[in-house]
Amino acid sequence: MARIGIIGSEGRMGQAIAQVLASGEHEGSGGVDKGQSPVELAKTSDVLVDFSAPVALAENLAAAQGAGIPMLIGTTGLGEREHGAIDAAAQNIPVLQTGNTSLGVTLLAHLVHEAAARLGPDWDIEVLEMHHRMKVDAPSGTALLLGEAAAEARGIELAENSESGRDGHTGQRAEGAIGFAALRGGTVAGEHSVIFAGEQERLTLSHSAENRMIFARGAVKGAAWLIGKPPGRYSMKDVLGLD
Ligand SMILES: NC(=O)C1=CN([C@@H]2O[C@H](COP(=O)(O)OP(=O)(O)OC[C@H]3O[C@@H](n4cnc5c(N)ncnc54)[C@H](OP(=O)(O)O)[C@@H]3O)[C@@H](O)[C@H]2O)C=CC1
Ligand SMILES: O=C(O)C1=N[C@H](C(=O)O)C[C@H](O)C1
């Protein structure tokens, strides 16, 4: 039985993870929120899960490294600085970072990679997502994860080929671009579609999250999987044994 410490424990995901732990094979070792240090929590946990805010990441990674335990990062809205900090920490501890811990999205990313590789660059790729009105970052971490899967399959850098926030006289779609569109409203847990638009035909691959328990279950599974792994950077694909 793993002792799992939750960072962002009072949040929507923190509470969902506590619910999974209350009825599952692993146990919660406590939680911290804004204004509380994760150092003591790290000392009494086998693994940390972080569903808080990008600004907290450096301190959380330092606490996990100080205690020599792994960390799963579900927080989205991460930038270059945060990804650099994750790479550095992964030299010392196992770190799993993902924009989506669900089984379905992990498989969707695999399918998107396959479709992008097989359909070729003349099929335009657009990623559409919708989330609840409380979400603060866009595009969603999942949309970016799906965009990365498509970019990797095409051998291009997503950062140099993404188009988002189209408004006004935008000019034509850039050749080879991967587009992003974000909708916000209500209580939507998470809707993602990747549209491959070719000549006179379209292929759409989609995932619908009916509630956030799917993310919580995946986070607990991923966190427990990380325990005992060598230092390095991991993804949900590793947990599920997908290439
Ligand atoms: N990877 C995945 O599968 C999923 C990822 N997410 C991501 O997880 C994150 C959290 O989502 P959600 O639970 O909906 O958001 P919430 O806003 O409900 O929860 C975030 C929690 O973290 C707390 N927090 C804020 N700053 C800090 C800090 N510096 N240190 C510790 N805790 C802090 C917040 O406290 P306060 O309210 O006081 O600010 C709040 O309790 C988001 O980035 C979201 O996109 C969400 C679902 C699935
Ligand atoms: O903030 C959310 O709610 C979610 N965030 C993640 C994301 O940014 O993709 C995962 C999920 O879609 C819910």
From TrEMBL:
Active site per UniProt: H131, K135
Natural source organism: Erythrobacter westpacificensis
Domain Dihydrodipicolinate reductase C-terminal: 104-240
Protein name (record): 4-hydroxy-tetrahydrodipicolinate reductase
Pfam families the record matches: DapB_C, DapB_N
Catalytic reactions of this protein: (S)-2,3,4,5-tetrahydrodipicolinate + NADP(+) + H2O = (2S,4S)-4-hydroxy-2,3,4,5-tetrahydrodipicolinate + NADPH + H(+); (S)-2,3,4,5-tetrahydrodipicolinate + NAD(+) + H2O = (2S,4S)-4-hydroxy-2,3,4,5-tetrahydrodipicolinate + NADH + H(+)
Enzyme class, broadest EC rank: oxidoreductase
Residues bound to (S)-2,3,4,5-tetrahydrodipicolinate: H132, G141, T142
Chain positions recorded as NAD(+) binding sites: G8, S9, E10, G11, R12, M13, D33, G74, T75, T76, T98, G99, N100, T101
Phylogenetic classification of the source organism: Bacteria, Pseudomonadati, Pseudomonadota, Alphaproteobacteria, Sphingomonadales
Signal peptide extent: none
Record-stated family: Belongs to the DapB family.
UniProt cross-references to InterPro entries, sorted A to Z: DapB_C, DapB_N, DapB_N_CS, DHDPR_bac, NAD(P)-bd_dom_sf
Key words of the record: Amino-acid biosynthesis, Cytoplasm, Diaminopimelate biosynthesis, Lysine biosynthesis, NAD, NADP, Oxidoreductase
Gene3D superfamilies the record matches: Dihydrodipicolinate Reductase, domain 2, NAD(P)-binding Rossmann-like Domain
Highest taxon, organism lineage: Bacteria
Transmembrane domains' residue ranges: none
Record's subcellular location: Cytoplasm
